[in-house]
Amino acid sequence: MTRKRALVTGASGVIGAAIAERLAADGHAVIVHGYRNCEQAEALARRIRQGGQSATSVCFDITDAQKANDALALLLHQGPIQIVVNNAGVHDDAPMVGMTGDQWKTVIELSLHGFFNVTQPLLLPMIGTRWGRIISISSVAAVIGNRGQTNYAAAKAGLHGASKSLAREVASRGITVNVVAPGLIESPSVNAMFSQEQIEALVPMKRTGRPEEVAALVSFLVSEQAGYITGQVIGINGGMV
């Protein structure tokens, strides 16, 4: 597969980092995005380069449309970005009866406004190449719901509808648009929130998933072999749903 430029948002996190590393290993020129953890994003890009692959880092707030547009315009001066992984997201959990307006808006803005602010400016250059892959990272919470996460589930479920609609708009241009919806994936936060007994009760496979398993699915969806898969929400959750 010809090397493409690939932007991974929120790549300073566990899943985003695994995706960035896998796409770099696949031979793509990866742009590692961070915002609150810019140093971690650059450290990841440096580690990828030390391994002999191609990576740079970029730092901007995807909820700020103007700043996102300015940052992406600079990147586009170097050529089109044909792979976009919308991975950035945030939790701010609370039962809805006690949820504040700020908790609701913060989570919605990062996942949904961020999806638009990053993806929309890249579409025309991508369409011009007649090839592209747009993948958004959702959650099992958007499929089956989760107590205390009405904001997070709403934000991620919004990505499902947006992606299905966008998939129809760009299908004839050689661009696929899909969603990956992980379940419990090994990370410091998941390890802190769930005991082994709780994991075994929730997940038929009796274990958490590995970030590398999510990255492998993204790698496949980016590949030529997945060229006829679009508009899909694909779960990776150990049988939770």
What does this structure look like?
The protein has helices at 14-25, 38-50, 65-76, 101-129, 141-144, 150-170, 188-193, 196-202, 211-222; strands at residues 5-8, 29-34, 55-59, 83-86, 132-137, 175-182, 233-236. Strands 3-2-1-4-5-6-7 form a seven-stranded parallel sheet, with helices on both faces. It has one domain (5-183, 214-236): Rossmann fold. The protein is built from nine helices and seven strands, in the order E-H-E-H-E-H-E-H-E-H-H-E-H-H-H-E. The two termini are 33 Å apart. The chain has 241 residues and is of the alpha/beta class. 48% of the residues lie in helices and 15% in strands.
Write a short abstract of this structure.
The chain has 241 residues and is an alpha/beta fold. 48% of the residues lie in helices and 15% in strands.
Q: Keywords, please?
A:
single chain, about 240 residues, alpha/beta, Rossmann fold, about 15% strand
CATH fold call: Rossmann fold
CATH class: Alpha Beta
Q: Can you tell me the overall shape?
A: globular
Uncertain segments are none
Under the CATH scheme, the architecture is 3-Layer(aba) Sandwich
Please give the alpha-carbon distance between the first and last residues: 33 Å
Strand order of the largest sheet: 3-2-1-4-5-6-7
The topology string of helices and strands comes to EHEHEHEHEHHEHHHE
Question: How do the strands and helices of this protein lay out in sequence?
Answer:
Blueprint: E1 5-8, H1 14-25, E2 29-34, H2 38-50, E3 55-59, H3 65-76, E4 83-86, H4 101-129, E5 132-137, H5 141-144, H6 150-170, E6 175-182, H7 188-193, H8 196-202, H9 211-222, E7 233-236
Helix pairs in contact: 1-9, 3-4, 4-6
